[in-house]
TrEMBL record:
Methylates the class 1 translation termination release factors RF1/PrfA and RF2/PrfB on the glutamine residue of the universally conserved GGQ motif. This is Release factor glutamine methyltransferase. S-adenosyl-L-methionine binds at G119, T120, G121, C122, G123, D142, N183. It comes from Candidatus Methylacidithermus pantelleriae. The keyword Transferase applies. One of its GO terms (molecular function) is peptide chain release factor N(5)-glutamine methyltransferase activity. The keyword Transferase applies. It catalyses: L-glutaminyl-[peptide chain release factor] + S-adenosyl-L-methionine = N(5)-methyl-L-glutaminyl-[peptide chain release factor] + S-adenosyl-L-homocysteine + H(+).
Length: 274
C-alpha cells in the first residue's frame, strides 16, 4: 500500500473514532515510524509501505483511536521545538507553559541565586532554564518518583540542574531563590471525570488541584514567602482574581498577569515582599 493511501485511510479511521486533528495524528505516527520529517511524507506519497511497518502502524493507530495521547504513543512531546521524553507518569507539556517560561525570563539575573521549578514533571521548565542560564543552579522538584526519573533522563548532559523529591517546598533546599516557577495542578476535583478522554490518560496527580483547583497554588505561595524574589505561576481559567487576592494577603505584589492565545489569564508573576 502506498504512503498516500495509508495516510488517507488512517485519517478516515481516526476521524471515525472521534480523534481531534486526525490527519495530523496520522502524519505524526507515520513520520515517526519512517524516521522522517512530517512534511517529507508528501514527497513519498507514491512509495510503498512494507507490510511489517504497516502492521506496526496499525497497532499505533488503534492506540490513538482509543484516545491515548499522541505524545505517549510517540514517547516524546515538543516544548519550544525541543523533544522531551514523556510517559504516562508525566503530564504532557502544553504551549501555555511556554508562556510561563518566556514571561519570567526578563526578571531573572544570569548571575543571581538559584531557581526552583516546583512540580517539574518531565522537567521542561527546569531544563530549559538550565540551558538558557548555564551559570545558574536550577532545581526541579516533584512528589512523583516516576516523573522525576523521566526528568533526569531528559536532563542528561546538563550539569547545572538537580531534581529531587519534594511535596511543594517540603523537601527543597532551604535557601533563597531568585525565582520559583510552577505549573501545578489547577483543575478542580469535580471537573476531572468530565475532562476529554484524552486528558484522562494523564496522571491525576498532575491534574487535580483540589476542590477549587487552587489548593497547591495557595500552599506554594504560603511556603514561598520570604524564600524567593519572584513567584511565577501558571493558573487556570477563572483563578486570576482569587489567586491575586490570596497573594496580596500574603504580602506579595502582583507584577504581571498574562493571557494565553484564548484570552484567558494564564500566567501570574508576583514579587515576594515578605
Amino acid at each position: 500500500m502506498k504512503i498516500g493511501e495509508v495516510l488517507s485511510l488512517t485519517t478516515q479511521y481516526l476521524h471515525k473514532h472521534g480523534v481531534d486533528s486526525p490527519r495530523l495524528s496520522a502524519e505524526w505516527l507515520l513520520a515517526d515510524l519512517l524516521a522522517v520529517k512530517r512534511l517529507d511524507l508528501y514527497l513519498r506519497f507514491d512509495q510503498s509501505l512494507p507490510e511489517e511497518l504497516l502492521e506496526t502502524l496499525r497497532t499505533l493507530v488503534r492506540r490513538r483511536a482509543r484516545g491515548e495521547p499522541l505524545q505517549y504513543i510517540q514517547g516524546y512531546a515538543l516544548f519550544r521545538g525541543q523533544r522531551f521524553t514523556v510517559t504516562p507518569a508525566t503530564f504532557i507539556p502544553r504551549p501555555e507553559t511556554e508562556i510561563l517560561l518566556e514571561e519570567i525570563l526578563p526578571f531573572l539575573d544570569p548571575q543571581g541565586p538559584p531557581i526552583l521549578d516546583v512540580g517539574t514533571g518531565c522537567g521542561v521548565l527546569a531544563i530549559c532554564l538550565a540551558q538558557m542560564f548555564p551559570q545558574l543552579t536550577i532545581f526541579g522538584c516533584d512528589k512523583s518518583d516516576a516523573a522525576l526519573a523521566v526528568a533526569k533522563e531528559n536532563a542528561q548532559g546538563l550539569g547545572n540542574v538537580t531534581f529531587l523529591e519534594s511535596d511543594l517546598l517540603d523537601g527543597a533546599p532551604q535557601i533563597f531563590y531568585q525565582a520559583i516557577v510552577a505549573n501545578l495542578p489547577y483543575i478542580p476535583t469535580a471537573w476531572i471525570p468530565k475532562l476529554p478522554k484524552e486528558i484522562q490518560w494523564e496522571p491525576v496527580l498532575a491534574l487535580d488541584g483540589g476542590p477549587d483547583g487552587m489548593r497547591y497554588i495557595r500552599g506554594l505561595a504560603e511556603q514561598a514567602r520570604g524564600r524567593c524574589r519572584w513567584l511565577a505561576l501558571e493558573i487556570g481559567d477563572g483563578q486570576a482574581e482569587p489567586i491575586q487576592t490570596s497573594l496580596q494577603k500574603l504580602g506579595y505584589h502582583v507584577t504581571k498577569l498574562v493571557e494565553d492565545l484564548r484570552g484567558i489569564p494564564r500566567v501570574l508573576i508576583a514579587q515576594s515582599c515578605a
